[in-house]
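Researcher: First entry.
Model:
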Amino acid sequence: MRSNTRTWHQAFWTASTAALLLAAGLAHAQQSAPGKQAPAAAPVTETQARASAILARMADFLGGAQRFSVSLHAGYDAVQKSGQKIEFGDMRKVTVSRPDLMRMEGERSDGVKTLTVFNGKEIVLIDETRNVYATAPQPGGLDDTIVYFVKDLGMKLPLAVLLVSQLPAELKARVRSVDYVERTNIDGSPSHHLAARTDAVDFQVWVADGDRPLPQRVVITYKQAKGEPQFWAQFSDWNLAPALDDSTFLAKPPDGAQKVAFAAQLPRLSPAARRSSADKGAKR
């Protein structure tokens, strides 16, 4: 069962990550279509105004950070044909140095370890478990590279929208409503619990109180996906002044590693070529 759920999950993970990124700020043709009038906005309550201010403060603070590192412990649902949800896990450490550098070390719950590096010139992805790696030219700064990595290369990048400097504008454009749930503690840190909605997802975020309004926990519900699966992530070890050197954004494949292409880089056969290939296979 694990192989089937894992295969299904890999597709879901990529799609869900892209959905969050897109919902947070890539496409809004439907909203801006001519002839459509937006419904009248309901009056904003005091708690909604408070929640909106906290969310905006978090976005401004994180979007404006020139460098940071953070660890994530995440879990995500894989909805089976029966409707049952199976949860998988993931551990990651992300280091960002704007305008164009990022390092992400990851380990899935099945033990697969990966390293992704944006070094300003190229994208390098190393699968240490399978001893393979892939590279692609980096198209520009971190924001453009993240969009390219997820949308064009079709790769997974958890909570991609939180890594872009345009986070304040993206959230402002996409969040339809946000409300204040409660003041609570996350791992002993006083935090504000917010609940928000976009067209594609509902999400909850716990934002640290005080002069460092960083996200402590996120829960996303993909309300348009079958079974409404969830993704959650717990943040820890935020560091806004990580020690960086030349080796931080260096990705050297292991000895004997095989270079492969990103799936999106592979040539796509025409329908006629696919039929010809299938016919040849049938004759063998």
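Researcher: Second entry.
Model:
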Amino acid sequence: MKRVLVTGGAGFIAHHLIYLILKTTNWDIISLDRLDYSGNLNRLHDIISTLPVESRSRVKILFHDLKSEINPIIKKEIGNVDIILHLAAGSHVTRSIQNPMEFVMDNVVGTANILEFARYIFKENPSFERFVYFSTDEVFGPAPVGVNYKENDRYNSSNPYSASKAGGEELSVAYHNTYGLPTIITHTMNVFGERQHPEKFIPMCIKNIRDGEIVTVHSDKSLKIAGTRHYIHAQDVSEAILFLLNLKLKFESDWGGAKCPKFNIVGSEEISNLEIAQLIADSQNKKLKHVMVDAHSSRPGHDLRYSISGEKMKSLGWAPSIKLRERIDQLVKWSLDNPSWMEL
């Protein structure tokens, strides 16, 4: 039986991943979280309470802030692990612009501390399988129309958040190259799903449309072209990560000698924020009230279009299993049935 450490386990994406692991494997989970504004133990309670008793007993919840090293007491509590999934991160672009050092500490220093723990485990347990660093499409910066960045394309961070995630990536690559730590990196973009923080675009749209309020849609300066994204459900992201964990990877060098493999986890279709808002309105049988706002002028550091290529994952045999519209319909119904998760 494998033991898996998940950082940020009470966070939005991580709790979906924990649920899938508990539901589809016999692995034990250690959730490590500092429980800040984005971490919520109620997420774990909600998912664990739906599982059989024997599955619930496979989860251990620990409190720790990764800005500090993992000390001997926490090491003992964690014990030996076979896989580390590093999802803990600060992920709010606007706050990163207002307070960049907070994100350097969370996403660079925090990653260094969990990598040091992984190095310790790797020395103690030669059968340690994988360190997974969960990154973002935003490290590549804005994508011109027609451009879909591949895994090893150059970085061009537009804000301190994406720069701090790129910094964490490079540390992960360095630990792979220097210490032989078996590491992979994933990039994903605009994840949505149940129990997401209500400040995010999709839950905000669901609530505002339900209440007959105006939805703000970011656009270009002409106020005619809305920003576009490849939205992907957290369950699809979780399935992709589990797919990679079960994949027999060869850590071979590519051009330039890079050994640390990277994988883009991408939604099935590119869609504008206005189209997403309209899908949500249609799902509620309500009229969409919206206003277009120049994204760059209103929120510097936010880009109109992000896009990454999902061809590598497709070639390996993975793609999202359910259409975006169906995912939106499911989420709208769930959100209306569970309105407390849309309240700040």
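Model: Note on the second entry: The longest strand covers residues 130-136.
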